[in-house]
Specification:
Layout (H helix, E strand, L loop, with lengths): L2 H16 L10 H4 L2 H15 L5 H6 L3 H14 L1
Helix pairs in contact: 1-3, 1-5
């Protein structure tokens, strides 16, 4: 899976789960999502990619680029 494919799937998940009709945020995800949106997105990402995030991921993922890298890492571990 390529980083671009992950970004595209993330945009689809965000549209489905959060009703987003805008591009993925360029800056901090924490600044763009409230706690309920973040939880819904995390669960949808885990389900959509067949991965499980670790507690450490929460501390290291801040931007969409960080999230894409994390998803690729977790998928490779799969």
């Amino acid at each position: 899976m390529t980083p671009e494919a992950v970004r595209q799937r993330l945009a689809e998940i965000a549209a489905q789960q959060l009703g987003w009709q805008r591009p993925l945020p360029e800056g901090s995800l924490a600044a763009s999502l409230d706690s309920m949106e973040r939880l819904a997105l995390v669960v949808a990402i885990e389900d959509g990619f067949g991965i499980a995030f670790t507690p450490e991921d929460d501390a290291t993922v801040d931007t969409v680029d960080d999230l894409v890298a994390c998803i690729l890492e977790r998928a490779a571990e799969g």
